Every structure is written in C-alpha cells, then in structure tokens.
Amino acid sequence: MNTALQFNRSPYTHFMQETKVSLSNGIDLHVEIGGRNDHPSILLIMGLGAQMLFWPDFFCKSLIDQGFRVIRFDNRDIGLSSKIRHQGPRLNPYKLMGRFALGLGNKGAPYDLYDMADDVALLIDQLGLKKTYVIGASMGGMISQILAAKYPEKIEKLALMFTSNNQPLLPPPFPKQLFSLIGKPESRDEQGIINHSLKVFKNIGSPGYLNQIEALEISRKLYHRSYHPAGVLQQFLAILCTGSLLKLDKQIPHSTLVVHGSKDRLLPPSHGKAVAKAIEGARFELIDGMGHDIPPHFIPQLSRLFAHHFKS
After folding, report:
1. Which backbone phi and psi does 174 adopt, to 5 degrees?
2. Which residues are in the AB hydrolase-1 domain (predicted)?
3. Residue-wise over 253-272: b if at least 16 C-beta within 10 A, else e?
C-alpha cells in the first residue's frame, strides 16, 4: 500500500478511512478503504451518476468480515472526485442512443469509458496494489470489462453486477427506468432533488425491498455530500460514446462471475447473460427478485457469492 497517502477516518463509516488520490492524468479520486492491509484487496467500481456510498456499508463490512480489504471510490465527475468542465458542443443523448443500440460508438463526449478505465488503472498503481479483485456494478461493470481487457496484469479475478457489454440489439432499458435515471428533478431545491432520488430508487430498485426511511436518509446524505447533475449527464454520454464491448470481452483472461437481478428493468437480465457468454469460462448467476440495486436483503447472498468466487 502507498504509505505516502494521508488517511483520515471516514465521516460515514467507522470501519473505513478516506483519502484523496492524485493520478498522473490530472484527475483526483476520492477513496475509502476498510479492512486489514495484509488482506487481499477488492476494488469496487460504481455505476452511472452513483457516488461510492451506493456501495452499502453493510456490503463492504460483510466482505471485510470474510477476510478482504475493501476499496470504494468516486468515479471522475461524481461525489468528491474531480469534475470535468466540457468546452465542446452540447450533445443530445437521444440522438446518440440510436447508434448506441446498434453497438456503435459516438463522438464528442468530454471523455469515454476507456478514459474512466485508465483512471482505475492509475488508481491501482497509486495505491500500490500488485493485483486486485474487482467488482464492477452497472456502468462500473462496463469500466471493469475494459480494465480487465486492457490491463489484465492488474486484476486477479473479476466480478460484474447488473451490467452490460452494450453489444448490438440487446433489449433496451424500460423507458420509465431509463428516464427516471437521466431525467431532471421537478424543482432545484433540496426537497425536489431528494424526491427525485427517491423516485429513481423506487423505479430501478428491487420491487418490494425499498425501505423508504433508509432511502430518504441516503438521498439526503448524497445530496449534502455532492450534487453535480452535469457529471451524471457526462457519464451517460461516456457510455453512449464507448459503444459495444463485445470484442474486449473476448480478450478477458480472468475467472469471471456475472451476477444479475431477475427484476432488473434498467438493464434486463439478457444483458448480463450476454456478458457471461462473451467472456470465456464466465459463470452467470441470476438473483431472484433483485433489481438494479443492492438492498440489505440480498447482501448476505451477494457477499458470499463474491467471497467464494475470489477465494476458490
């Protein structure tokens, strides 16, 4: 582990420490680490517009309790990491989505998922990790696929959650789920933004497992920690400008577990199945009743699956 980094106790979780890591490409990433330094590391890569707190504390703790050191961080353009100021022309995501559905990339975004995968590769170096286990969720799973194909020497084993390789002609997200994720809140004040977050949780989450009070608390915490809607749009454009990852999947040499929820309506299960089919030897696990989130109910099952995959 890089001993030059200055760590402070996380303001959110008593068993994690936080630090700012400056990468050689000019990006700063905000990172939290928990668990013993001599335990193998799991690097968690989160999805579109999602701060690292979307990795639930209970999920992190259950992996730490099974003998891992857990690292979560804010991707560029979200949370407490560097924000990207875009000077170029404004892109219309709806126009780009047609090409994207055919597996084609687009041009003109401030950055794409390859740039975000480079961030993670530089982070692995800066943290002094020799080889790490990786769990990527949603967009973070797409970044993880690029990372594994481009920097295979940095990764020990790979696990992917409710993600896609965006290959041509996969079923699109259900409109209600997609537009709640990329839509605007009804008002710009705190309550309007928190209500919008609650609506997103309800629309993309596991049906019947949303705890309103917990969701309200996390929405408020996320709002006060960082509210940066421009970053959400730019990350969405990054996905649309990256296109299909099918060719990259065929290059991934690592033992890979792909986990998907049966009730995911943002990225239906066929997306996860397509990833598992494309990566040689990958195992697919469908979680009955789970949507596009990590509710407490499923965490014991998920953390056991991941721990078993990494230890086996």
Report:
1. -65, 135
2. 40-170
3. ebbbbbbbbebbbbbbbebb
pTM of the model: 0.97
What sign has the CA pseudo-torsion 31, 229, 179, 212? positive
Backbone phi and psi for residue 308, each to the nearest 5 degrees, phi listed first: -65, -40
Among 120, 150, 125, smallest CA distance to 135 is for: 120
Q: Say what the pLDDT of residue 176 is.
A: 87
Neighbours of 78 (CB within 10 A): 25
Q: CA-CA distances (angstroms) from residue 11 to 29, 83, 230, 297?
A: 17, 21, 25, 25
* CATH numbers and ranges of domains, the chain: 8-311 (3.40.50.1820)
Cα angle vertex 272, ends 268, 274, to 5°? Answer: 105
pLDDT at 262 over 90: yes
Q: Tell me how far apart the 2 most distant CA atoms of the chain are, in Å.
A: 49
- For residue 230, CA distances in Å to 27, 68, 79, 86, 101 come to 17, 34, 12, 10, 23
Three-state SS for 239? helix
